[in-house]
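Input structure tokens:
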């Protein structure tokens, strides 16, 4: 398999991984804080918690899911020199990191169902067309109505 053999690249790779791993998370955190501060200034006391919860949960899940992938790419060049190629770090930690990235995609759907009433109503309207059991549920019942 092709690998970068230059000593300059080997020393630059952890720095590059650190920048590419931290920059997205820092951007998400800073823009989330700026958005929440701006929303509070615009609304002045009559803040809609639905939007705040959606933004906070989405940003938190993204940062949480991306952190293991970032750690892998920061530590991988260092570990490559000290461990054999087929060690558990390279095999299992990378798989877990990819699973956590997938968790971000899957979690967004559930965050919107829990936090956004209009999305919940939209899904129920589509499900009513498919299944007659969902016709008994109103959007105000939310998730609890599905299990009764």
């Amino acid at each position: 398999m092709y690998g970068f053999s230059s000593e300059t690249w080997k020393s630059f790779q952890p720095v590059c991984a650190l920048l590419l791993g931290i920059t997205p998370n820092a951007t998400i955190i800073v823009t989330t804080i700026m958005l929440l501060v701006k929303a509070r200034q615009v609304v002045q006391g009559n803040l809609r918690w639905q939007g705040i919860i959606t933004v906070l949960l989405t940003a938190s899940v993204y940062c949480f899911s991306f952190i293991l992938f970032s750690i892998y790419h920061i530590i991988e060049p260092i570990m490559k020199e000290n461990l054999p190629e087929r060690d558990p770090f390279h095999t299992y930690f990378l798989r877990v990191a990819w699973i956590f990235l997938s968790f971000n995609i899957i979690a967004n759907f559930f965050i919107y169902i829990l936090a956004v009433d209009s999305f919940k109503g939209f899904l129920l309207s589509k499900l009513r067309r498919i299944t007659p059991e969902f016709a008994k549920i109103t959007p105000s019942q939310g998730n609890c109505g599905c299990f009764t």
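The two ends are 56 Å apart (CA to CA). Residues 88 and 94 are 9 Å apart (CA to CA).
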